[in-house]
Write a structure and sequence with these properties.
By secondary structure, the protein is α/β, with parallel strands linked by helices. The chain has helices at about 30-35, 55-60, 125-130, 145-150, 155-160, 170-180, 185-190, 230-245, 255-270, 275-280, 285-300, and strands spanning about 5, 10-15, 20-25, 40-50, 65-70, 80-85, 90-95, 115-120, 140-145, 165-170, 195-200, 205-210, 215-220. It has one domain (about 5-300): UDP-N-acetylmuramoyl-L-alanine:D-glutamate ligase. Helices cover about 35% and strands about 25% of the residues. GO terms for molecular function: kinase activity.
């Protein structure tokens, strides 16, 4: 089934202990759609400026991503500049230039309005609600958010959460949104705000899936080299939602757990190189192989009787 994503496309400048990159392809919708395209058709809604390279559009088209919802406006593309320390767990934002993204107002093409799976990227919650006003009876709506919206646009965010089935959020944001320090209590508080499920991303410590009756913990895939964690969370969401959209309409505990693992698998590829370099070259057999490795890492037998 088709998957709709609304979010940002950006040109990033990155610095990590392993090097620097200037004006590379980035943005939440870019990481998400590239990842989800491994699983099925993706429709992308975003805005770019006059300076956005045609080669990047060719890459997205080459992934089979539908760009009818992508608009090019007069001005410069959204730009973000960040720096990571040796721990690579959080970026220090050095510069943000919203440019054409500042006036972004998502308008869905008619062909997108009946898409069954919808992902609302990290944009203003009022824009997220505006997207939901345009879609017709989606099967599942997922959203992402961030500390900036939690602090500055909380009323609008709470209204949006009442219309969302699943929320992706990191552990610090979950604590901020809920007012609870304990992550389990934070998840329960967020579930009471509207979503029927919440995924709490915990970086190198993996992710947790909560609904009203179940909890599933998924570790991060262990890697010997991590170069750039930018976009890992959006890649995780792309793998997760791509798995759901390709499940034949079935969303049960088994499918959700598979989606969690696939999200971790895809994120593990992203961090191995800068920007989308690794996602550009990864092949489906590699994805299957890493998923199988993940299964071995997390499999164990029943305990059996304990000795006296």
């Amino acid at each position: 089934m088709s998957l709709l994503v609304v979010g940002s496309i950006a040109l990033d400048s990155l610095e990590t202990p392993f090097g620097k990159k200037e004006d590379v392809l980035g943005g939440s919708a870019t990481y998400f759609s590239t990842t989800a395209s491994f699983f099925g058709p993706v429709q992308l809604v975003a805005v770019i400026g006059e300076d956005f390279p045609e080669s990047h559009l060719q890459f997205l088209r080459g992934r089979g991503i539908d760009l009818e919802g992508l608009t090019r406006e007069a001005g410069r593309t959204f730009r973000w500049k960040g720096k990571y320390g040796w721990e690579l767990n959080e970026a220090q934002t050095l510069d943000t230039q919203l440019n054409v993204f500042e006036s972004f107002s998502p308008n869905l093409p008619a062909a997108y309005r009946e898409t069954p799976y919808v992902f609302l990227g990290n944009i203003h919650p009022e824009l997220q609600s505006r997207v939901l006003d345009q879609v017709k009876a989606p099967k599942l709506v997922a959203a992402d958010t961030m500390n900036f919206w939690i602090q500055g646009s909380r009323p609008a965010l709470l209204k949006t959460l009442q219309r969302v089935n699943l929320l992706f959020i990191n552990d610090a944001e979950a604590r901020q949104l809920s007012g609870e320090h304990n992550v389990v209590k934070a998840a329960r508080a967020i579930l009471a705000m509207g979503p029927s499920r919440v995924v709490i991303k915990r970086g190198e410590h993996g992710a947790l899936l909560f609904d009203h009756d179940h909890i599933f913990a998924c570790p991060a895939f262990p890697l010997s080299e991590v170069f750039d964690p930018t976009g890992a969370g959006d890649t995780f969401a792309g793998g997760f939602m791509g798995t759901l959209a390709s499940s034949g309409g079935k969303v049960d505990q088994q499918v959700l757990r598979k989606a969690m693992v696939m999200g971790s698998v895809m994120a593990s590829f992203t961090v191995e190189k800068f920007s989308l370099e690794r996602l550009r070259e990864v092949q489906r057999p590699e994805i299957h192989a890493r998923f199988a490795e993940f299964k071995k890492l997390t499999h164990f037998d029943d305990l059996g009787p304990l000795g006296g």
